[in-house]
């Protein structure tokens, strides 16, 4: 699953979270969040679930649906 960087940024803004906050809530490294936002890395499904849970949004709100078809 490819994360949609723009959707992730929007979800972070809606939750009033920066990368450090999100990393702490999702229990993943800030470096990983940075790589997802820059497109250098794609999160594993479990990690994507942690991010969505921390942001209190469905996973579908964070992935690039167009690239999945």
Automatic annotation (TrEMBL):
SUPFAM superfamilies: lambda repressor-like DNA-binding domains
Coiled coil (UniProt feature): none
Annotated SMART domains: HTH_XRE
GO molecular function term, any single one: DNA binding
Protein name (database record): Uncharacterized protein
Origin species: Anaerocolumna cellulosilytica
